Amino acid sequence: MKLTNRSKVVSNKEMTIAEKIYLPAIFKGMGITFKHAVRTVIKGAPAVYSYPEVQKPRAKVWRGQHVLKRDEEGRERCTACGLCAVACPAEAITMTAAERTKDQKDLYREEKYAEIYEINMLRCIFCGMCEEACPKSAIYLTDRLVDVQTNRGSFIYGKDKLVEKINERIDITSRQSEKQKNAVK
Ligand code: SF4
Ligand code: SF4
Question: What SUPFAM superfamilies does the record point to (predicted)?
């Protein structure tokens, strides 16, 4: 059965003399390097960044560390529906749902919430499927980088690292489509 239309027919034809001496391929490669060098000089953009002191500018839609959003009243948006976990191709998301009590109305937006919500950052491939699957606009990827750690357990990010701080909101509007912006109340 044919799985894709992208299969490439491999040719067994004899190499030409130019191919055998490799020089054209070497000059072609050097041409690409030279083109980038000239472009760097003309644009004035640094070819090397002194990371981590100086960070390379990232695109607005960069997919970095996730954030679990709060609504405008500060309540957690996530209702522990599990759709993000189902959509995740890396099986990186796990959660435990709990029922909201009467005195927790200010904390959680809906009657069910995620008591535990964890993302394994070593498994995550930052594809953004969780963001797309979420019906509550609760999870977004951000332009933040995941911290370097020295043990595997530290890459399991829980709610303490994922839920945005009430006084330090994270702007994700550049990641939202117009439809999504209008849908978020
Ligand atoms: S970004 Fe992709 S891999 Fe990472 S948690 Fe979301 S769905 Fe899973
Ligand atoms: S983040 Fe969104 S999709 Fe995932 S459990 Fe919470 S509400 Fe559901």
Answer: 4Fe-4S ferredoxins
Whichever domain contains 136, its CATH number is: 3.30.70.3270
Q: Would you say 175 is a known binding-site residue?
A: no
Domain holding 147, by residue range, is: 66-183
Kind and range of the H or E element at 93? strand 93-99
Whether 35 and 100 share a structural domain:
no
88 Cβ inside 6 Å of ligand 2: no
Q: Is the dihedral of CA 10, 15, 18, 24 positive or negative?
A: positive
- CA pair distance 143, 145, nearest whole angstrom: 7
What is the DSSP-derived secondary structure letter of residue 76? B
The reply to whether 59 falls in a domain is no
Residue 183: count of CB within 10 angstroms of its CB: 12
124 in a known ligand binding site = yes
Measured CA distances, 66 to 35, 56, 59, 144, 165 (Å)? 37, 20, 16, 8, 13
Largest CA-CA distance found in the chain, in angstroms, rounded: 81
Using one digit for the tens of pLDDT, what is the confidence trace for 3-24? 667 777 788 889 899 889 999 9
64-83 mean pLDDT? 96
Which residues, 6 or more positions from 19, have their beta carbon under 8 angstroms from its beta carbon? 25
Cβ 63 vs Cβ 126: under 8 Å: yes
Tell me the whole-structure pTM to 2 decimals. 0.76
Same structural domain, 18 and 92: no
